[in-house]
Amino acid sequence: STSLPEYFVVPSSLADQDLKLYSYSFIGRRMPLWSWNHPNGSALVRMANIKDVLQQRRIDQRICNAITRSHPLRSDVYKSDLDKCLPNIQEVQAAHNKLKQLCVDDPFDDTEEKWLSSLENTRWLEYIR
């Protein structure tokens, strides 16, 4: 994938030929990417969606098993679909535009209470939290 860095960490239990084979299953050939490791052994692995819904469970399970086998504490993988719990880029941009309009374009003639509710309605603080 041209969008991945030249070097990146992958589970040691996945063979190169498996990585190449699996890469075709991911949107944009974006293989799972070990992004962060906590001293307690927790790891953050980013993974693109799998194209073929029929193959998704099998590939997902094999990669999660490889991550578990490669984890120092052999901890189970906790998966979270960020597409469902995080805003998309268009929502973040819209919130930023509303914030900018509130802070720069609109005069501060309103009461503080109304301004704070307008700030909350931008959802900017929610997104950056």
Structural commentary:
There is one protein chain. With 129 residues, the protein is mainly alpha-helical. The model has no long low-confidence stretch (mean pLDDT 82). The longest helix has 18 residues, at 53-70. It has a two-stranded antiparallel ribbon with strand order 1-2. The protein has 2 domains: 14-79, no CATH class; 85-126. The chain has helices at residues 16-23, 53-70, 82-85, 89-105, 112-122, 124-128; strands spanning 33-37, 43-46. It contains 6 helices and 2 strands, in the order αββααααα.
Question: Which helices and strands, and how do they pair?
Answer:
Blueprint: H1 16-23, E1 33-37, E2 43-46, H2 53-70, H3 82-85, H4 89-105, H5 112-122, H6 124-128
Antiparallel strand pairs: 1-2
Family: Belongs to the protein-tyrosine phosphatase family. Non-receptor class myotubularin subfamily.
Binding site for substrate: 88-89
InterPro entries: Myotubularin, Myotubularin-like_Pase_dom, Prot-tyrosine_phosphatase-like
Give the CA-based shape.
elongated
Gap between N and C termini: 31 Å
Gyration radius, rounded = 21 Å
Bin the helical content: 40-55%
Mean pLDDT: 82
Describe the largest sheet.
2 strands, antiparallel
Overall structural domain count: 2
Secondary-structure element series? HEEHHHHH
Query: Structural class from helices and strands?
Result: mainly alpha
Widest sheet, order of strands:
1-2
Total beta strands:
2
Number of helices: 6
Strand percentage, roughly? Answer: 5-15%
Task: Describe the oligomeric state of these chains in a short phrase.
Answer: single chain
Unreliable spans: none
Protein name: MTMRA protein
GO cellular component, one term: cytoplasm
Family: Belongs to the protein-tyrosine phosphatase family. Non-receptor class myotubularin subfamily.
GO biological process, one term: phosphatidylinositol dephosphorylation
